Recover the amino acids of this structure.
């Protein structure tokens, strides 16, 4: 599926599936389009909680739902789109200047986030109006 929000796309990971189960590998600059500097997980999210609600100035991320499912709102300031991640075989690439919200986490949902930079609080845009202003420039 092609996303209409700019700077976002799905990446399919073929992986190895056999009678023993699934194995999916993520490799910097091979099937992940940036050098991975950080990996973090989001789990144990209670019913009804929305996370994210920010954009990044420089950061690139690849989000993989390794268990359960989660909905994403993606917004580039012009187009908004809601999509779902529910398999470790499809990752969601999110580039810079994309507002994102994660919601409707299923019970047991685990997100793994591969990131192009170390954590930097200064890279976040938390104010949606400010995000829209920056995008217009
Ligand atoms: P936050 O960005 O609010 O999570 P989300 O976007 O999923 O809603 O992060 C929660 C807290 O974790 C916040 O205090 C920042 C901290 N944090 C780190 O220290 N390192 C990290 O790599 C990340 C992603 C967050």
């Amino acid at each position: 599926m092609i996303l209409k929000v700019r700077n976002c796309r799905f990446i399919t990971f073929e992986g190895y599936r056999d009678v023993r189960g699934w194995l999916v590998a993520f490799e910097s600059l091979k099937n992940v389009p940036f050098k991975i500097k950080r990996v973090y997980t989001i789990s144990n999210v209670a019913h009804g909680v929305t996370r994210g609600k920010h954009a990044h100035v420089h950061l690139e991320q690849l989000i993989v739902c390794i268990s359960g499912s989660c909905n994403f709102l993606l917004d580039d300031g012009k187009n908004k789109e809601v999509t779902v991640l529910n398999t470790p075989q499809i990752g969601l690439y999110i580039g810079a200047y994309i507002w994102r919200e994660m919601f409707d986490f299923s019970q047991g949902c685990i997100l793994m986030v591969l990131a192009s930079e170390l954590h930097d609080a200064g890279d976040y845009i938390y104010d949606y109006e400010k995000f829209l202003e920056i995008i217009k420039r």
